[in-house]
Amino acid sequence: MKQYVTFAVALFGISAIQAQDISDAIRYSQENLNGTARFRAMSGAFGALGGDFSAINVNPAGSAVFSTSQVGMTLSSLNRKNESNYFGTITDSKENSIDLGQGGAVFVFKNDNMDSKWKKVALAVNYENTNNLRNSLFSAGTNPGNSIVDYFVSYANQGGVTLNTLESSYYENLNYGVAQAFLGYQAYLINPVTNDLNNSQYSSNVLAGGNYYQENAVATTGFNGKLNFNIATSYDNKYYFGLNLNSHFTDFRQSASVYESNNNGGSNGVSKLRFNNELYTYGSGFSFQLGGIAKVTDGLRLGLAYDSPTWYSLNDEISQAVSSRHFIDEVETSTTVNPRITVAYDVYKLQTPGKWTGSAAYVLGTTSLISVDYSIKDYSATTFKPKNEFTGVNNAMSELLDNSSEIRIGAEHRIKQLSLRAGYRMEQSPYKNKNLMGDLTGYSAGLGYDFGGTKVDVAYNYFERDSKQAFLNQGFTDGATISSVNNNVSLSLIFEL
């Protein structure tokens, strides 16, 4: 059974809806390096080059660079390793997957009027998985000072939740914040300061003065997808102009479980607890792109592109359960609180930031090229809507997030039908405090072979990034440092029509 509840409480800069916090906004605002193998082998530095399906996603003018109509598809593997450091304890986890990362077609219509300087029009459609969300994280260690129960205490004390509410209500009838207090109370994790039914102050049932062994296991699946509908044209074979109308899709599932054990209380208090959360986010969005490319000289090419914000409509569904091991009258007892209810929230909006990309490339005859793209995006402009319901999280993003630039460098050298490729990229953190998320550094290489009407490309790319992962979003925000290393292999098949 589903219960439909609307929550509009913002807390400490984080929305009371667990799926609607800063990290989730960033998840839907970032695009990873995906697409064709040629594109990935050159680290995506294609804004001034065009002539590649994934280049259209950088600069929509790139489809007019194609000389013939083509279709193509790309298979990609993902190998992700995460190393976690939580209070000095090192753990690691891995995730592997294969997906159809790209598929598209471009149709080139040449102008038969030799007197016209408008030489051709290109129409293209291209789909890419802009972000593979499959991941696995595991953190474990001994916390010397803070208990997970502080999460439930925080929610119980912040909104004047009465003891009568926690004793006589049903989980499905409560807003999110009160529901967290309800779970903690029913699982004997928190105690009222007094037994008065009007009591609204609570304390932890975990005794202080010791260490807390804690675990956090998070498994995610899903994707962010982007479908480009493109039109582009060329003028005098020197100037190229293009437009993309983009449809976005997201489908994200997260299963998270936090665990704690301690021996602080002897025959009193809570000795063990586990808190499980299941989140499902899905929705769609729209954006557009404008771009141009100019052949300044025979070798030099310049490009400029604008990506609009993406306007998402998103849905969240969550389910929760708590279990504990605790003492009642010095007798150890187990309690499980599992409402077995999925809460579906009202549809909400997310506006991700726009982006500008400037590009330059130099082509040496028909054998070699080098290309550079520079992009800038203001993550502080990310906004949840309606604004009046997300004041806290929007203010937090404005304060904590920053402009982020990205540089991509790629090179290619052809030896007859064989192409050799390599690339480098660096993407700045979206956070002002880089301890929350560090800069991304990546390298790539690849090969391509032209059989005439068919092209086969293969690419390898590597990137790494450090970040902080809080176990929970409020009250107990201790987290682990995650060092993530990603290795990807892509294979593309391109056919001329």
What does the main sheet amount to?
14 strands, antiparallel, barrel
What structural category do the secondary elements indicate?
mainly beta
The CATH architecture of the largest domain can be given as Beta Barrel
Please list the strands of the largest sheet in the order they lie side by side: 4-5-6-10-11-12-13-18-19-21-22-23-24-25
Number of strands: 25
Q: Rg, please?
A: 26 Å
- The CATH homologous superfamily name of the largest domain equals Outer membrane protein transport protein (OMPP1/FadL/TodX)
What portion of residues belong to β-strands? Answer: over 45%
Question: Helical stretch count?
Answer: 7
* CATH class category name of the largest domain: Mainly Beta
Distance between the termini: 51 Å
CATH topology of the largest domain: Porin
Uncertain spans? 1-19
The domain tally reads: 2
Write down the overall mean pLDDT: 91
Portion in helices = 10-25%
Shape: elongated
Plain-language structure description:
- This protein has 497 residues and is mainly β.
- The protein has helices at residues 22-27, 37-41, 55-58, 149-158, 163-168, 176-186, 391-400; strands at residues 2-4, 10-11, 14-15, 70-86, 89-110, 118-132, 135-143, 190-192, 202-204, 212-235, 239-261, 270-295, 300-307, 311-328, 331-337, 342-344, 348-351, 355-364, 368-378, 383-385, 403-415, 418-427, 440-450, 454-470, 479-496.
- It folds into 2 domains: 2-147 and 206-496, Porin (Beta Barrel); 149-193, no CATH class.
- Helix content is 10%, strand content 57%.
- Strands 4-5-6-10-11-12-13-18-19-21-22-23-24-25 form a 14-stranded antiparallel beta barrel. Strands 2-3 form a two-stranded antiparallel ribbon. It has a two-stranded antiparallel sheet with strand order 8-9.
- Strand 12 and strand 13 form a beta hairpin.
- The longest helix has 11 residues, at 176-186.
